[in-house]
Design a protein that fits this description.
globular; 9 helices; cytoplasm; SAM-dependent_MTases_sf; transferase; five-stranded antiparallel β-sheet; binds S-adenosylmethionine; Spermi_synthase; 2 domains; alpha/beta; Rossmann fold; Spermidine Synthase, Chain: A, domain 2; EC 2.5.1.16
């Protein structure tokens, strides 16, 4: 018998993958968690019926949420990730030679446990000595810090449940305060095809707080529509001013100097959302 998993991405669209087995399911304090094995994308982490990451395409998202900011900041020593309990962003962050400390603030400890057990390729850096893993609400953590981090990455779930506040203007103001005077934030901001209103609103909110705001794109097959956006707020450094020779050399599968620049080239319908 063939088994298929479908994520209903909008009222009218879904993604369907043939699966070989369900490895784990549980109801945590915050969400329904599942790890399934698919033929096309390998093992897949699903929260509340939404694909979070898969073994085959995770590199795109994790490299792009991390390396654009890491290579825009000249000295990214102290970096934090809010959400991101799978550990993929942390694995990328500690590749950068300038990083001395990477803090992960994930609200749901069960996501970290399941990722370490079933997705070790992604979670492999969570026990690195440079990494501080905290099971806390990211909103509370950020509100308790001032002038502290060089880079903050918001690697959140979709804006439902505990992640709603991670897309709010008040939260971006707290991030601004938690960053040092030349700090940078990047948030994952969903699909330009399916989440146009969210992208417009978040871009406007971040532009009202940070002097430099930029949107960039990446192609991620298992995320709704396959085209994904990230919004950067920067106090001082412009990602478009980065020189090719200043991009640190370490192994990546998607990110490179040309992608760093090209990711900011926006199709007209996306540029329209930012006006
Ligand atoms: N790459 C993913 C995506 O775009 O679908 C996100 C992956 S990561 C697993 C998202 C994490 O954010 C989840 O594990 C969730 O528990 C966490 N999260 C949601 N709200 C949070 C909050 N307020 N503070 C900290 N973590 C939160």
């Amino acid at each position: 018998m063939e088994l298929w998993y479908t994520e209903k991405q909008t009222e009218n669209v879904g993604i369907t993958c043939k699966i070989t087995q369900t490895l784990h399911t549980e109801k945590t304090e915050f969400q329904d968690l599942a790890v399934i094995d698919t033929l096309q994308f390998g093992r897949m982490l699903v929260l509340d019926g939404m694909v979070q990451t898969t073994i085959k395409d995770e590199f795109v998202y994790h490299e792009m949420i991390s390396h654009v900011a890491l290579n825009t900041h000249p000295n990214p020593a102290n970096v934090m990730v809010i959400g991101g309990g799978d550990g993929g962003a942390i694995r990328e962050i500690i590749k950068h030679p300038g990083v001395q400390k990477a803090t992960l603030v994930e609200i749901d400890g069960k996501v970290i446990e399941a990722s370490k057990k079933y997705l070790p390729e992604i979670a492999c850096a969570l026990d690195d000595p440079k990494v501080d893993v905290r099971v806390e609400d990211g909103i509370k953590h950020i509100a308790e810090h001032e002038n502290h981090y060089d880079i903050i990455l918001v690697d959140s779930t979709e804006p439902v449940g505990p992640a709603v506040g991670l897309f709010a203007a008040d939260f971006y103001r707290s991030i601004y305060r938690a960053l040092k005077e030349d700090g940078i934030m990047v948030a994952q901001t969903e699909s330009p095809f399916f989440n146009a209103d969210l992208i417009s609103r978040v871009f406007k909110d971040i532009s009202a707080i940070f002097p430099i705001t930029r949107l960039y794109l990446a192609s991620i097959p298992t995320y709704p529509s396959g085209l994904w956006s990230f919004t950067m707020g920067s106090k001082k450094y412009d990602p478009l001013a980065v020189k090719e020779e200043d991009i640190a050399q370490y192994p990546t599968k998607y990110y490179n100097a040309a992608v760093h620049k090209g990711a900011f080239a926006l199709p007209n319908f996306v540029a329209e959302l930012l006006k």
